Amino acid sequence: MPLPLILTTVAIIPAGETFTCTPTEVYEGDGPVWCTDGPRIRLAGIAACEMDGTCRSNQPCPAVAAQRSHGALVKLVGVPIGRRPESHVLV
């Protein structure tokens, strides 16, 4: 079963701990944000549609378009400098 392997390879930073993140890529409006320093960040408590405009059945579905929330997160962490084929924006 691959799930335990995945869980052991993901760094989880405890609440209240400080870490460094130099953003390099943003995927969706709630993350993840890829960092050159190692961690990937997904924002908790942020409702954002999937990039295709759909919403997960167990999550709220905001009225804001996916591209708009994605663009807001990109601007928050940096300046867009390119795009990967899978929709990641390089910052």
Structural class: alpha+beta
Order of helices and strands: HEEEHEE
The Cα radius of gyration reads 14 Å
Whole-number tally of structural domains: 1
Q: If you average the pLDDT, what whole number results?
A: 79
Q: What percent of residues adopt helix (DSSP H or I)?
A: 10-25%
- Spatially, the strands of the biggest sheet line up as 3-2-1-5-4
Task: Describe the overall structure.
The protein has 91 residues and is of the alpha+beta class. It has one domain (10-90). It has helices at residues 3-9, 66-77; strands spanning 23-26, 33-35, 40-41, 82-83, 89-90. A five-stranded antiparallel beta sheet has the order 3-2-1-5-4, covered by helices on one side. The radius of gyration is 14 Å and the shape is globular. 14% of the residues are buried.
How would you concisely characterize the structure shown here?
Keywords: Endonuclease, Hydrolase, Nuclease. With about 90 residues, this protein is α+β, with helices and mostly antiparallel strands.
SSE blueprint:
Layout: H1 3-9, E1 23-26, E2 33-35, E3 40-41, H2 66-77, E4 82-83, E5 89-90
Antiparallel strand pairs: 1-2, 1-5, 2-3, 4-5
Which properties best describe this structure?
alpha+beta, 2 helices, 91 residues, disordered N terminus, globular, Endonuclease YncB(Thermonuclease family), SNase_OB-fold_sf, endonuclease activity, nuclease
